[in-house]
Each structure stands twice: as C-alpha cells, then as structure tokens.
Magnesium transporter CorA family protein
Amino acid sequence: MLRRLEILNRRLSETDAEDARILLYVAPDEAERKYLTDELGIDPHTLTSASDPDELGRVEFEPNHAAIIFKRPKQYCADDNFFFKISSVGIFLFRERLVFVVAEDNLRFEGKHFQQINSLEELLLKVVFRCIWHFEEHLKVFNMIAEELEHKVNLSMENKHLLHMFTLEKSLVYYLNAISSNGRVIEKLKALATRFRFTTEDVEFLDDLTIENAQCHEMANTYSQVLASLVGARVSVVSNNLNVLMKRLMIVTIGLMLPTAVFSLFGMNLKLPINESHGAVGFWIVIVLAILSGMSVFVMVRWKKF
C-alpha cells in the first residue's frame, strides 16, 4: 500500500500527486518493490531489511540516497500473549524525496512535533523521535502489566501468570537490544550531519534525541533488572504457597485419619467388651471417641502454631 504526503503550510497532508516528495510504503507488493529497486535505486537487501524485525539499525549511503534502518515497537495484539515484538522502519532520504518502508501500517505522523515541519531532513528526525517515544510508551505499559501480574502471582499457585512474567522479561531483552541499536544510529547521524545537510536546529534536535534515547535505554534496563528480580522472587512465592497448601492438606488428612482408625477398631466383626457392658450406649461412646481424636489433632496444630 502506498500513501503520498506533502509538506503544506509546515504540516503533512495526504496528496494524490504523482510527484509527491514523501512516500510511505506499507508492506510493498512485488510491483512496488520493483519500482523502489529499479526506479529509485534502493538496494534490494536494504529494502528487505526495512521489513525484517531481526535486522539491526544502521546507516548506509548509496550513490543517490541515504538509507536508515531504525527500530520501533510492533503494534501489540492479544494473540501475542504478553510478548511485545520489535519491527523495523526503512527511511530512504533522497535530495528531493523521502521514502518510508514499513511492514505494517503503524507509522503515525501525529503529535505536536509534526505540526511544524520545514524540511525533509527535519521530518526524518521527528520520525526517529516518534519511534523513541513509542518505546517509552510501551515501557510504561510493561510496568503496569508487571505490577498486575505480580499481584496475581501472589494470590495464585498456577504457572500461567509466572510464565507471562517470563515472556515480559524476554520482551525487555529484545527492547534493550533495539534501543541500543537506535542509539548507535543516532550517534552516526550526528557524526554525518554534514552529509545529511542537517541545519543547526537539526543538530540540536539530534542532541535531544541522544538524551531521550539514553533515558529510554536506562528505563528499559531498570525495568528489566526489576522484572528479573521479581520473577526469581515470585518463583519462591509460588513454591511457598504450594508448601502451605500441602501442609494444610496434611493436617486435614491426619485429622480425618484418627476418627477413621477409631471406627475401624470398633467396627471389627468380633466380640468387644464394650458391646456387652454398655449395649446401645457403646455406639455413642465410639462417636465421642472419634470426635475427640479428630479434635485433638486440630488442638495440637493450634498449640504448636503450625
């Protein structure tokens, strides 16, 4: 799918013009890929990397354009089962054109930073900022989900919630790797600011992006360490909850075993002294002995504070 955009009155607007300077390709089909490689001269491997979630971020220069692979969070859906994935965005900067290639339609040009755009280079940097901001928003969601799962693990002895925490921890590892990769891309953009024709304001914005990405990485690293500690602690909590339950079941089993032993003793098909000396009253004597034997177990438990 192809979307054409243009900068009008310092804002992005949809357009149908064939000569639009900004092109957004979402999961390009074979004909669109052929146009990008044959007409625009984009390297086929780099174009494939733009849709590959496992590709690391990088900056490359071709004869007529610069190619940037940047990482961003993938849109989460319920089928992912608490696994937050990473996607890539390919940015190809020509002298008079800017091309974006993504695997899914999740690249948004929204927010206050997109209300005033002066050049294609500035738009490129603001898309980079949007990706970093998207990571930060996902990390906040991570924290809320982790707190909810922590509460559920404390009250449950099932492995389901604990496995969800393991999945979150795995996702954070991928996030840390992607954010680190983005940091290297930003550093290279700063080092090659002249080749990208960045203005003084653009370079200052790059400094802000460096700080923003570093804070994002620190946040992700903190959440990763905290979640790893929580997972280890919650494994012990689940194990302790199971031990407490087994102890209670054992007490109940012993409390029922003694009355069963009393009934078994006096239920033998033999002549017992109690049958001859007490008659029908013997039945109630057996009942009382069974109740007292069961109660003795629970009294002992309360006394020992098991």
In short: The longest helix spans residues 200-266.
